[in-house]
Amino acid sequence: MGAEFVQFSLTPILIGIFSAIACALPGNFLILRRQALIGDAISHVVLPGIIVAFLITGVTAAIPMLLGAAGAAIVAVILIEAIKRLGNIEPGAAMGVVFTAMFALGVLILEQTDTSRVHLDVEHALMGNLESLIWFQAEGWHSLVDPVALAKLPDELIRIAVVCAFIAGLTLVFWRWLKIATFDEGFAQALGIPAAALGFGLVVTAAVAAVAAFDAVGSIIVIAMFVCPPAAARLMTNRLEHQIWWSVFLATLSAVLGYVLAGYGPLWFGGQNAVSAAGMIAAVSGVILGLACLYGPHRSREGVGRQDIA
Amino acid sequence: MTKLQQPAMAAEDGRATRPAAVPAEAPLAVRGLTVSYGEKPAVFSVDATFPARAMSAIIGPNGAGKSTLLKASLGVIPRLSGEVFIFGQPITKARNRIAYVPQRASVDWDFPTTVIDVVQMGLYRKVGLLGRLSGQMTIRALDCLGRVGMADFAHRQIGQLSGGQQQRVFLARALAQDADLYLLDEPFAGVDAATERAIIDVLKLLKSEGKAVVAVHHDLSTVRDYFDHVFLINVRPIAEGPVSSAFTTANLQAAYGGRLAATHLDELAMVEGR
């Protein structure tokens, strides 16, 4: 665990951890609101936006990508409304059509364009390129206090760290609103809490997390980050406060274990090559969710449906 | 009999007309209220005034817009037209004076939280977004739980409660709001007899303290025992007034149409003749 680790593994692991946490935090509330698949939908819709932004600017910088993603999200909302109104089609079907169509469009554009200058191709867009986000200038642990080396940290790490801190800050500041409005939206509105705007803000936050995590885990696997750690955390406790901490812990565990297993796991079993770190992170988070389903202390209540009223 | 005249057509163009005199002391008054979920209105052109220091029931058949009337009064669902006055003021200026008990089945009781946490949500208007819950406030929340006989359940996960216990917790949360007007959406739906007794005792105590209670109510057989004032609705307003004069067979038939079973009417007629 020396220079090589700092140079090749430290930054990918950190980016994986920050991505997982940034997605898990809003994921907790999305799951409790029965909106878990919103994260999936968003990650699909933003793909063409990110790619078009890249084609126009020629760089994978944060601001253009976020703007592209936001533009794609707006187009998606307009399309969904149009299909609902003009075709008189139910909302679920309208969303399903728009999300898959926009995602497919993103894949087609990506395939047809020359993106050889940077790491943006179909495989990376779908599954991330965590392994390539290395810290070239690092020569060992002492580089962590070396300003010259620190200045050359991968942009992706800075970006996801800022987004993760931002989302954590939002969660803290709006904690009371989120808790009351997620449990009882009508009561929250009667108290004067802007519940509708809060719900919209939550979806926007999830979209920001999805875009920021794009580098690390790509646009398909990000759904695992939204759903698995919070869902497993729910099975570990009956307190929302504790659930959030559990989700952060399980997200971190998934990222670290997933990265290590992807890099070294195949070698232990006599394989030759490492496997996709993002894929392994998602797989590990799924296994953790499975274990929580089987052995979690509070699994008995989960799955008891809400009593829907007319 | 105080059968209402249909209000003037002025409300139909969507513009709020200057309401007929709204008594400033009326805890809840709505004028020309229309609410619609789709093309068909759920509540159409409703005028209603609920009196102070009284328990009022909102009565009508399923789909008559009872809950909608309550939610639109609170601003929980948007209104198409009309105005709502809480003690003579618009809702945005009177939120601190209202407590609300939504339908028990409208929330997910698997939500990861405890009984005391739910009751403390009623303190939000005092604590604010970032304020700290003082020890005193926690004591008050526990006191509210005690008033509904749930003090021993403070640290239970809410999913472990029975339906009646859930309803008591919701009432305790409303008590924590320390309001002057209590709006309850079907507080007796699906609760056990002991809970119904406990809830009505708490509500009657509130009334004796000078508070106003307005409840959406289903059970016609208990209206005379529990309430002072009724408002009958079937999308349009049917009748309002003291139970003794407005809760009549004729008004019920007007509200329920053919949907009120003959046996039910007989029962009520017997109570009436008592």
UniProtKB/TrEMBL annotation, chain A:
Keywords for this protein: Cell membrane, Membrane, Transmembrane, Transmembrane helix, Transport
Domain of life: Bacteria
InterPro entries: ABC_BtuC-like, ABC_TroCD
Record membrane topology: Multi-pass membrane protein
GO cellular component: ATP-binding cassette (ABC) transporter complex
SUPFAM superfamilies: ABC transporter involved in vitamin B12 uptake, BtuC
Location within or outside the cell: Cell membrane
Record field: transmembrane: 6-25, 37-56, 62-80, 92-110, 157-178, 190-214, 220-237, 244-262, 274-296
Pfam families tied to this protein: ABC-3
Biological process per Gene Ontology, one example term: transmembrane transport
Main location: membrane
Family affiliation: Belongs to the ABC-3 integral membrane protein family.
Protein's name according to its UniProt entry: Manganese transport system membrane protein MntD
Organism of provenance: Roseibium aquae
Native organism taxonomy: Bacteria, Pseudomonadati, Pseudomonadota, Alphaproteobacteria, Hyphomicrobiales
